[in-house]
Write a structure and sequence with these properties.
The protein contains 12 helices and 9 strands. It has helices at residues 18-32, 57-68, 89-97, 110-119, 134-148, 168-180, 196-203, 214-218, 238-244, 252-255, 278-281, 288-307, and strands at residues 46-51, 72-77, 102-106, 124-128, 159-163, 183-187, 208-211, 223-226, 263-266. The strands form 2 sheets. The protein has a 5-stranded parallel beta sheet. A 4-stranded parallel beta sheet has the order 2-1-3-4, with helices on both faces. Helix 1 (18-32) packs across helix 12 (288-307), helix 5 (134-148) packs across helix 12 and helix 6 runs parallel beside helix 7 (196-203).
Length: 308
Amino acid sequence: MSNDPEPRHLLTLNDLTRAELLEVLDRSQRMMDGEGAGDRPLSGRSLAMVFQKSSTRTRVSFEVGMYQLGGRAIFLAERDTQIGRGEVVSDTARVLSGYVDAIMIRTFDQAQVEELAHWSSIPVINGLTDQFHPCQLLADLLTLRQEFGPELLEERGVRVAWIGDGNNMAHSWLNAAALLGWELRIASPEGYDPDPNVVKAASRKTQVLLTRDPAEAAEGAWVVNTDVWASMGQEEEAEARIDAFSGFQVTPELMDRARSDAVFLHCLPAHRGEEVAAEVIDGPRSRVFEEAKNRLHAQKGLLLHLLT
């Protein structure tokens, strides 16, 4: 268990410097390539995984990642913790800090993650909130590094397109674009723009375009991203969102507006025929399953960054 009075957290990508982000991705790639195979740098270390939102990729990637690094992950569903029965977050943070070496939490409200980190004496990782999804962005950037080479991350002005809801993924792409100096174009229907404060912060460091035209966003992009139109907890809005997002599907024609070597990314799960055409997500330009696999490697790189 850590005695570090100032633990390092990943609540958003803004908790990393540009150099640290590149190092996490480089370390993730080296492990993926087999460097240090058989090493167990986290032997005897434990990760508590608190899930108030269910998951496939987040749970499996963190659990397997800890195992491969020699450590152990403990799954805690909301019903398995006293948080689910009304215990204040500060008490849970202080108790878990005495048992394990890090906490990963996947929940709804970013404020809850921030409060957990405030009271914790060990690293806290945001596995997803309604506002940010930094772990997914690590996997996305690792995927682009593999596709275009590590030098892509050193280039300024790389154009990224986000099509659809201005959600937690859009916010984390704003964080990433600001760190890397990439241009980000976001196409959302009226009423579904990203948080203006997150946009404003990113715009101080890089070029951000908000548009109602998906074709304008995709023009010349290296990568085209999207996400489901109704995320977890928004099921009651699904019908209204389908109407609002009509015309924001990523189609082969939209992909043709991007660079000839552009790739398509989606954090999954996906709804074919809604936010993305089947011909795109299952086509030759899609890298969604490489992206999903890279959650494991990105998680391992992050865990080593925070714990070693």
